[in-house]
Amino acid sequence: MKQENPLVSVIIPCYNHEKYIAQCIESVVQQTYPYLEIFVLDDGSTDGSFAIIQELSKQYGFFAETHANKGLSATLNKGIQQYARGKYVCIVASDDYWERTKVEKQVAFYEKHPDLGFIFGRTYIVNEYSNLIRYEENLPIPNYQVFRDQLVGPYHPNCSFEQLIYGNFIPALTVMIRRSVFDKIGYFDEKSAIEDWDMWVRIAHECKYAIQDEFLGFYRVHASNISNDQEKMQVSRDYLIEKWKGTLKKSKPVFENILLREIADSCVTDKKRAAKLIFSNMHLFFRYKAFRKSFKRLFLKFRFRKKR
Prior knowledge:
InterPro entries: Glyco_trans_2-like, Nucleotide-diphossugar_trans. The protein is of the alpha/beta class. The chain has helices spanning 21-29, 49-60, 72-83, 102-112, 144-149, 161-166, 179-185, 195-206, 230-249, 252-269, 271-279, 289-307; strands at residues 8-14, 36-42, 63-66, 88-91, 97-98, 116-126, 132-135, 176-178, 208-220.
């Protein structure tokens, strides 16, 4: 294959998305970049997803298989380890879909910046009927305006591990990763429900990464999004932070800001956990207004309950 036309491996994991899988697959096979190998891996769907996948596979000639349900991370790892041969790897969930020039734009961008571990772009937000809900005008990055002002054309040279560990601002469907990065970093953590964030953090700790400031995909919001399971997400977030605690403590302000956010979130979602975090970190009381605010919120809540 010519150097200027590197092969891109596309992995589409599917689980019970019969309503959306056809649109997802169509958005991949209709890409303007032709040098693709496509793997649609059905993770034991119990609806009609795989029947749709099989019909489209006959029409377009991509690889399709189904296996007993093993979870998203295990499915992705299987696709990468057993099938992906491309220089670059892209993953798109079966309920999301791409803008037609997504791969073409990213390959051109990546070839100019070969030192990057991964790149990502911006995304439109759509509902279950593919109607546009909003543009993702602002990525949820701390100090976003400063981040935005530092963009050089479509390239941001200063994306950091610290920004990413603070919160996941990367739309997974817009990511492109060098295949060789997995050999260095490893594969998706099968113990985590936020396997994408975990992966981006691990890569960012070892490699540079960058935003391509263009809309490249459509992220679908619907009732069965895993991000709606707040308890599961919280457990996975705690697990992620625990993994990096030693590294973060070397950067004290970053660690403390993450802790403040965890306390604030827990005041709403898990008051017992919030109390535990507050009382084990009282040394922060006079240092941070946000800490005192959370302390006050929790204290007033408990006092109100006692009076009733």
